[in-house]
């Protein structure tokens, strides 16, 4: 009796590239949709700042726990199924985040939301590595640019809907519809397989994967520092009105998005090594400029330089993970994604601890020194 041969995996082409971009947009759009809802959840559950901070850790814990699981599942069941499941988890959690008032239910909703985000983020980066390699072209920066664009659209869109008088639940229903339409568009061309690499489902990162993960940790730490502390720095240290203190992160996000959307051409022109070296140096100079010079206008310019410098470092590092042979990529990609998320989660807390013992300026200078280390590491890492 003749065995039925297993169909060969579909070789990714333009349609798969398009679906990858949409999936990155979904990831950025989903996480940013939560930001305008935070004050409503805080008021509804009558939380103080300390309790809210602890609850938000549930989101990060859910993400970090889901990432290695998502990599293993994508390897076995394919990126399409895992990305779809992650998106459904996000859509299930959003109405809960918009309505629940009890702390246990809010914890459950944040954990589910974080798990969905971690699942999508980890799996879409795995698909991006496979798709980019099949294309033979530099595409990772453009993929990540769609994540940044989704973040801007999600945050601004939900804020705009709330400003028009929609309730948090109504705003999240609009978000869910948009995500569902995007998923239906991307779904048929998401990869029905994951990494073809063999190996265990889980492993502790080591060798060059650990080195790349540490670089991701630092870059994401810098991003978390600007996200959570730039407004505090501008208002407390530079005397900028609190209503405008968010301009620091806005300047960072704008240049990061622009840098990623144009990043593929930049990487092709400069090469991956120079992108890390120059990008790390630019980010270092920007953070020092923002921290050491007294004018708030200079600080805004500095944060913009940090965004431009950091914009293409992480995409280049994901490409490097796809080329290494030390670990199977279905383990390596979730590993560096997890370390990156750890930087975003741990970074702001570390900065707060240092600022409490010394000053916020000292904390920012230390982050700048770490970014300088990333720049130097670009010459060591062969990409």
Mean pLDDT: 88
Ends distance: 48 Å
The share of residues in extended strands comes to under 5%
| Whole-number count of domains | 2
| CATH homology group of the largest domain | MFS general substrate transporter like domains
What's the CATH architecture of the largest domain? Answer: Up-down Bundle
Count of alpha/pi helices: 15
Shape: globular
What radius of gyration results from the CA coordinates?
20 Å
Encode the helix/strand succession as letters.
Answer: HHHHHHHHHHHHHHH
* CATH fold-level label of the largest domain: Growth Hormone, Chain: A
Low-confidence stretches: 1-7
Description:
The protein is mainly alpha-helical and 383 residues long. The chain has 2 domains: 176 residues, Growth Hormone, Chain: A (Up-down Bundle); 174 residues, MFS general substrate transporter like domains (Growth Hormone, Chain: A, Up-down Bundle), CATH 1.20.1250.20. Helix 8 runs antiparallel to helix 9. The radius of gyration is 20 Å and the shape is globular.
SSE map:
Blueprint: H1 14-34, H2 38-44, H3 49-77, H4 79-99, H5 103-135, H6 140-163, H7 168-186, H8 207-236, H9 247-261, H10 263-270, H11 272-292, H12 296-310, H13 313-323, H14 329-357, H15 360-380
Helix pairs in contact: 1-4, 1-5, 1-6, 1-7, 3-4, 3-5, 3-14, 4-5, 4-7, 5-13, 5-14, 6-7, 6-9, 6-13, 8-9, 8-12, 8-13, 8-14, 8-15, 9-12, 10-11, 11-12, 11-15, 14-15
